[in-house]
Amino acid sequence: MQAQGPLRVGVRRARADDKDAVLAFASTTWDGWDYIPEAWDEWLAATDGTLLVAETMTPDRDAEGGVVERGRVVALARVTMLAPAEAWLEGIRVDAALRGRDIGTNLQVAELAWAAAQGATVVRYTTGRDNEGSHRLGARHDFVRLADRRAYGPNQPSESPSGRPIRRPFGCSSPTRQRRSATGGPDWRTTRSSAPATASTNAAAWPSRS
Ligand SMILES: CC(C)(COP(=O)(O)OP(=O)(O)OC[C@H]1O[C@@H](n2cnc3c(N)ncnc32)[C@H](O)[C@@H]1OP(=O)(O)O)[C@@H](O)C(=O)NCCC(=O)NCCS
To answer: Whose CA is nearest to atom 31 of ligand 1?
Structure first.
């Protein structure tokens, strides 16, 4: 596998017809599981934020040497306003064969621009304590790690399609979705198994990258 440089992408709002392309790389992120397939329709219709995708601007090759055609959707992310001056980032996913090529960085630049345009002065997200890629991505935009916290979720065993237990990365789950589905859920518990970090940045002060 060859080291590859930045991949040129454009970022735009997601459309309904992006669904298949997005789910092709964002359905099995965590041990064969991801919540993006459940969240897609809701996020596309949501009016409290924006759902963004990145698509390639030029043909390229992925990490296995496979052809990546121009115009392929290769990443998504959602940003929402939790309060008039407070934005929340969630659901960022980059095609696994194209990570480390600045796609997440460019997507996050667009998210932060959107947040700043809404008047956000604070932007936050949570992530897994051990999710180095997510920590480093945040560091590129001056996110500061604030705290560890415990997650609270359904106390039920879950398995991936392969039959292996899923170590759900609570820190990377969507708090805005959990908040909506928390009522009436059976048997909730706290867990220490993957205590996530909370990060925050000042939207007015981050440096931009192209
Ligand atoms: C986290 C993620 C969005 C980063 O996107 P990306 O396009 O790979 O990131 P970039 O190429 O823009 O690189 C940003 C930084 O992350 C680092 N990085 C990216 N992938 C990494 C990995 N697997 N391990 C360690 N660092 C990684 C890059 O080296 C860079 O750090 P640097 O500034 O120290 O050089 C992507 O790896 C991904 O989709 N991961 C799975 C989903 C996920 O973890 N989402 C976040 C959940 S909260």
So the answer is: 136
SS (H, E, C) the chain: CCCCCCCCEEEEECCHHHHHHHHHHCCCCECCECCHHHHHHHHHHCCCEEEEEEEECCCEECCCCCEECCCCEEEEEEEEEEECCEEEEEEEEECHHHCCCCHHHHHHHHHHHHHHHCCCCEEEEEEECCCHHHHHHHHHCCCEEEEECCEEEECCCCECCCCCECCCCHHHCCHHHHHHHCCCCCCEEEECCCCEEEEEECCCCCCCCC
Residue spans per domain, the chain: 9-201
For residue range 149-196, what is the model confidence (pLDDT) as tens digits?
776 666 655 555 555 554 444 445 565 665 444 333 322 333 332 335
Output the pTM of the full model.
0.84
> Cα(201) to centroid of ligand 1, in Å?
17
Residue having the nearest C-alpha atom to atom 35 of ligand 1 = 136
Rounded to the nearest whole angstrom, what is the distance from the C-alpha of residue 185 to the centroid of ligand 1? 32
Nearest residue (CA) to ligand 1, atom 24:
133
CATH class of residue range 9-201: alpha beta
